[in-house]
Design brief:
Strand content: over 45%
Order of helices and strands: EEEEEEEEE
Number of strands: 9
Helix content: under 10%
Number of helices: 0
Structural class: mainly beta
Distance between the termini: 53 Å
């Protein structure tokens, strides 16, 4: 893998447990599954991966912006950043008036 570039991360703001779509250029996922996504220094769970897109779940991280990078067969991509918010409450239900 030549050094891959992260083109964009959508959404630009996320919370732990949320999914982000990382659009890439030059990323070559390992055929043996030896690829990973790191957000804020923590390994993120990958939902899907292709040469142009990675969908990952944001792990519990501290501090924002969080540095994001990909690895494949031990080769690391260029870095990008993601604004990770703090979860203030959970178990709430939307109420329409």
């Amino acid at each position: 893998m030549n050094s891959a570039t992260i083109v964009s991360i959508d959404p630009a703001f996320a919370i732990p447990g949320g999914e982000v779509v990382i659009t890439t250029r030059g990323f070559e996922p390992s055929p043996t599954g030896d690829h990973a996504c790191y957000i804020g220094g923590e390994k993120a769970r990958i939902i899907s991966v292709s040469p142009s897109r990675v969908v990952a779940v944001v792990p519990e991280v501290e501090g924002t912006p969080a540095i994001v990078y990909l690895e494949s067969d031990g080769v690391r991509s260029h870095e990008s950043s993601l604004n990770v918010g703090e979860r203030l409450a959970d178990g709430l239900h939307i109420v329409a008036n």
